[in-house]
Description:
single chain; alpha+beta; Archaeosine Trna-guanine Transglycosylase, Chain: A, domain 4; 6-stranded mixed beta sheet; globular
Amino acid sequence: MIEDIYLMSIRPKYARAIFAGKKKYELRKLSGAPTIEEGSIIVVYASGQIKGIIGEFRVGRVIRATPERVWEIVRQPGTGIGEDAWFYIRGAKQAMALEVRDPTPYQRQVTLEEIRRIIPGWMPPFSYKALREGDPIYELVIKKLRSSLRSP
C-alpha cells in the first residue's frame, strides 16, 4: 500500500508560487472528490503552458468548511493567496484549503507529451485524483520521479 498520494492540476503561476515558497495554501472546491488528509502527498501537474508533472508537497493543516470560512482563514497576509482565489471557491457548497509543507520540485519535469508516449491518451485530472498502486501514471511516471528524491 502506498501512502496517500494525489495528482493535482494547478495553474502555472500558482505552482511556481508553491515551489518558490510563497503560496502557503492550495484551495479546492469540494464536490464528491476524495478527501485529502493531513500528511498526504500532492504531486503537482502544472497546467497551462507548462503541461507537466513538476514536483510535490506534503499536506499540513486541512481546512474544510464553507467557502466564506475557508476564505476568512487563508486570506491572511503571508499566505500567498490573492483575491482571485475567492472567485475560484465562492458559490461552492464546501471548500478545502490544503496547507503546503515541504514543497519539493522534481529533478526534472515530465511533460504531457512524454506521458502520452508512455500512456497514450492520458489526461491530467480536472482538479485532483487519488493515486493507487497499479495506476499506470503512478507506476510508470510518478514512482520514478519520487524515487529520484531519495537517491543520493
